[in-house]
Amino acid sequence: MEYSHTDAELLQQPVGYWSWAAYKSVVDRIRASLAEIGTTQPQWWVLAQVSRADRVRTRDEVSRLLRNYLGSGPEIMESEIDTTVSRGWITEDAEGRLSLTADGRAFYARAAAVQDELRAERHAGVSDEEYLITLKVLQRFIHNTGGQAWHH
């Protein structure tokens, strides 16, 4: 890969621009790949939260957890949960507890395979050490500017 600038020039580049460009590139790629299999990124988040939970979660718990992901907001997350239910991937009981259906488990496995492929694509040529440093640096920038990015 050829970098955009020399090391000395890169040190003068704005992190805001490059973090935005990375965000846009990664999120656009994820969303396009998920659209190819018929889902959205927020629907994937819902499926993942229900599938990976160590206990049954309610609609409210899932919605509260996900509503701050990429600025989605509560209305979008409620709508996306509704869509996963209407597609037959998730059921919701009278108390709002969410469970994967057999179709939901199968679709989740398909979407998880896409996510695994995308992760491998993104991480090509990036060591675990470099990745860890990158995330720690980004979190330090967030901390230093008074931002909040925690979602768990």
Assess the beta-strand content as a share of residues: 5-15%
Biggest sheet record = 3 strands, antiparallel
Radius of gyration: 18 Å
Number of strands: 3
* Topology as a string of helices (H) and strands (E): HHHEHHEEHH
- H/I helix tally: 7
Which class of secondary structure composition applies to the elements?
A: mainly alpha
Average pLDDT: 93
Describe the structure.
- With 152 residues, this protein is mainly alpha-helical.
- The protein has 7 helices and 3 strands.
- It has helices spanning 7-10, 15-36, 41-52, 59-66, 74-86, 102-123, 128-144; strands at 57-58, 90-92, 97-100.
- A 3-stranded antiparallel β-sheet has the order 1-3-2.
- The radius of gyration is 18 Å and the shape is elongated.
- The two termini are 35 Å apart.
Considering the chains and any ligands shown, give keywords for the structure.
152 residues, mainly alpha, three-stranded antiparallel β-sheet, 3 strands, 64% helix
Chain-wise SSE layout:
Layout: H1 7-10, H2 15-36, H3 41-52, E1 57-58, H4 59-66, H5 74-86, E2 90-92, E3 97-100, H6 102-123, H7 128-144
Antiparallel strand pairs: 1-3, 2-3
Helix pairs in contact: 2-6, 3-5, 3-6, 4-5
What can be said about this structure in brief?
The protein is 64% helix and 6% strand. It has helices at 7-10, 15-36, 41-52, 59-66, 74-86, 102-123, 128-144, and strands spanning 57-58, 90-92, 97-100. A three-stranded antiparallel sheet has the order 1-3-2.
